[in-house]
Amino acid sequence: MAKEPPSKDEILNAIRHTASELGKRPSRPAFIAHTGITEYQILTHFPSWNSAIETAGLQPHTTNIQINDNTLIEDWGRIVRQLRQIPTRTQYRHNGAYSPGVFEHHFGPWSRLPDKFKEFAVDKPEWSDVLALLPIQRAEARPTSTNAYAPQTIPHKTDMSVPSSAIQKHSKMGDRQVYGNPIDFRGLRHEPVNENGVIFLFGIVAREIGYSVEAVQAGFPDCEAKRQIEAGKWQRIHIEFEYESRNFRDHGHPTDRCDVIVCWRHNWSDCPQNIEVVELSEVIKQLARSDE
């Protein structure tokens, strides 16, 4: 039987125990390394790491040191240079020297940082490589959101004020590509519509949900990976990718040779108890909160 993810109380107890062992409030990376509890599992129960820390009765990290604006924006530029792209809040949190919240106190929304960096780096040739990685805002573009650099998306059907039955449906045109609903999640513009999309999305989030991929193959099972089961200990598992979980049943796969189904949508109510299901549509709802 698949191991149950930690409950809210178990995470709180783990935070307190880790703080006791370390003799201080644990940082998020230190906690994950110490316990094997993933960031996704934390965000399932808490809106942020600081929220989990506060709920556990510990004080979140604060500092009274005034940080210079240029020091902050230089560090942001350093991460752009390192990643060769504009970092999400999560990417900066993993690689930068400061909390993303500090930037919001100094500069406003995270989406304004490219413009702030351009103002800082003007006439500074040493930052020309970073400037080249930042998008150019078109003068004729009309601002439609607080993030001038986020690709504009079409609202989901569920966001519209008219009933779904009243929305006009159009016939498919020839062999043109079909896209899922817009999601704009870390470079993936649309929801997966097939198994290949599931594989790509899993590659984006695998590390954050506690998986280290060893190999991907054409035959069953699709993937061999390892995941951390406790501090300093990992276990080998076999993964099968499916667009919908019940495709596993429809494809006739043996249930005794797979540990985890990774899918976009979990719709197999009779899935055997020995197989764990990772439903990516739910996973990214949690992870997206730390990117915004």
Top keywords for this entry?
alpha/beta; 5-stranded mixed beta sheet; two-stranded antiparallel ribbon; 292 residues; 3 domains; globular; 7 strands; 15% strand
Give the structural class: alpha/beta
- The order of strands across the largest sheet is 3-4-5-6-7
Main pleated sheet? 5 strands, mixed
Radius of gyration: 22 Å
Description:
The chain has about 290 residues and is of the alpha/beta class. The chain is built from twelve helices and seven strands. The protein has three domains: about 10-55; about 70-130, no CATH class; about 185-290, no CATH class. The chain has helices at about 10-20, 30-35, 40-45, 50-55, 70-85, 90-95, 100-105, 115-120, 130, 195-205, 245-250, 280-290; strands at about 180-185, 190, 210-215, 225-230, 235-245, 260-265, 275-280. The strands form two sheets. The chain has a five-stranded mixed sheet with strand order 3-4-5-6-7. Strands 1-2 form a two-stranded antiparallel sheet. A hairpin with a 2-residue loop joins strand 1 and strand 2. Helix 5 crosses helix 8. The two termini are about 35 Å apart.
